[in-house]
Write a structure and sequence with these properties.
Low-confidence stretches: none
CATH topology: Amidase signature (AS) enzymes
Structural class: alpha/beta
CATH superfamily: Amidase signature (AS) domain
Number of helices: 15
Distance between the termini: 17 Å
Strand content: 5-15%
Order of helices and strands: HHEHEHEHEHEEHEHEHHHHEEEHHEEH
CATH class: Alpha Beta
């Protein structure tokens, strides 16, 4: 096994035990970038010389007894919405040509303080306004979409071009590409991870979170990221804690909610079969299965778009009027549509969200977690615009991918996507676990317990 193939936790243990140096790990990852990046296009930019300098500095610190913890010397990618002082935050858009960040975002500063080593900035669907990241190729099949908008981060992790990465999630943009590329993605509770210095898509729906190879890895990163920052008005005041789950697999007494509606409607049969097998495994570990009714499902799509579209348009108001030609057509059309939405529609979406949060809180008193598919279909072919379901219903690819993930953004509850199998074409399938606000520890415990009962996962080798 090459060092770039190691999980974050395995690499951190090897570094701590002086069996692997940060320089050896970083060099291995950079060699993998040189091999895979021309085929997968996960990165906007790779800062190889800076990366090597940071790895050497980490090695010196660790040798001198100044070990900062499990992220020290670990190579990472940051979605190119996340400011790093002195580097461009392009948002994968021509609108940002020539941009340079003046200061670190909160999350970049926290990861640097923890000793993580930046490999580069990863591609996003332009300004995070889409679910495919068209410039990036799926890590398992280059002819298929990466998912979005954090497609570059997911592909980098899935292919070994980063040991972990950060993404953002406004309607599923961490969990969708994580599911489509066979890695773990965590959208934390709204406000748990600060967004200062992160380009916004929709302020009331935006989240920042980790993409990693294992649930335990995601927990390590969340531990470094979480905590109050007064510069983010939505930032929660929560105690500092270690989110890493215990090693046990006993889930006795845990109540797992399985939706009888919505989440298993209009999904691929192989996805349903894989997710239900994973739920059976949770039951075998002692969990009690409880059927639940997802509330207000007819309002999910209207509420998601009713919040996101006007908020995104407000953020882009100045550049949309001065340089509209610099946006990709799909993004410009959505931004222009936001200018046509009445204020009443936005207020009704806010009211709907309030009611939906109340109903979800009631439902989540009956169970500890909800288990459901992450996405209704595996990665579609690049350029495919619609999915036709077995009953003849036709759905746009973007609507399909956002449909199962957006409820967690509307309500703000945490959601963890983890791999639970592959379809007959070899494409990954993801299951999401949803929980109560600030219930990340429970989600991570359940996901980690499941993961320990499964064979070790291989990296994708589409490159």
């Amino acid at each position: 096994m090459q060092p770039y193939e190691l999980s974050l936790t395995a690499a951190a243990d090897a570094i701590r035990q002086r069996q692997l140096s940060p320089v050896e790990l970083t060099d291995s990852v950079l060699r993998r970038v040189a091999q895979a990046e021309p085929h997968l296009q996960a990165y906007v930019s790779v800062t190889a010389e800076h990366t090597r300098r940071a790895a050497r500095a980490a090695e010196r610190d660790i040798a001198a007894g100044r070990h900062r913890g499990p992220l020290h010397g670990i190579p990472m990618g940051l979605k190119d919405l996340i400011d790093v002082a002195g580097t461009a935050t392009s948002a994968s858009s021509r609108v940002r040509a020539g941009h340079r960040a003046q200061a670190d975002s909160t999350v970049a500063a926290r990861l640097e303080e923890a000793g993580a080593v930046l490999v580069g900035k990863t591609h996003t669907h332009e300004f995070a306004y889409g679910l495919t990241t068209p410039q990036t190729h799926n890590a398992w099949d280059r002819s298929r979409v990466a998912g979005g908008s954090s497609g570059g981060s997911a592909v980098a992790v899935a292919s070994g071009m980063a040991t972990f990465a950060l993404g953002t999630d406004t309607g599923g943009s961490i969990r969708v590409p994580a599911a489509l590329n066979g890695v773990v993605g965590l959208k934390p509770t709204y406000g748990l991870v600060p967004r200062h210095g992160v380009t916004s898509l929709s302020w009331s729906l935006d989240h920042v979170g980790p993409i990693a190879r294992t649930v335990e890895d995601a927990a390590v990163v969340l531990t470094a990221l979480a905590g109050h920052d007064p510069r983010d008005p939505a930032s929660l005041t929560t105690p500092v804690r270690d989110y890493r789950p215990d090693a046990g697999t006993n889930l006795t007494g845990l109540r797992v909610g399985v939706p009888r509606n919505y989440y298993f409607d209009h999904i691929g049969p192989e996805i349903e079969a894989s997710v239900r097998r994973a739920i059976d495994q949770l039951q075998a570990l002692g969990a009690r299965i409880v059927e639940v009714e997802i509330p207000m499902t007819r309002y999910v799509q209207a509420t998601q778009w009713g919040l996101m579209v006007p908020e995104a348009t407000a953020y882009h108001e100045a550049t949309l009027r001065t340089v509209p030609e610099l946006y990709r057509d799909d993004v410009r059309i959505l931004l222009e549509a936001g200018e046509l939405m009445p204020a009443g529609d936005y207020l009704r979406a806010q009211r709907s969200r309030t009611l939906m949060r109340q109903e979800w809180a009631r439902m989540l008193r009956e169970v500890d977690v909800i288990a459901a598919p992450s996405v209704p279909a595996t990665a579609v072919e690049a350029g495919q615009e619609t999915i036709t379901w077995t009953d003849g219903t036709v759905e746009s690819v973007s609507d399909a991918y956002v449909r199962l993930s957006s409820p967690a953004n509307i309500t703000g509850v945490p959601s963890l996507s983890l791999p639970v199998g592959h379809d007959t074409a070899g494409l990954p399938i993801g299951m999401q676990l949803l929980g109560r606000p600030l219930g990340e520890s429970t989600l991570l415990r359940v996901g980690h317990a499941y993961e320990q009962t499964q064979p070790a996962r291989d990296l994708a080798h589409a490159a």
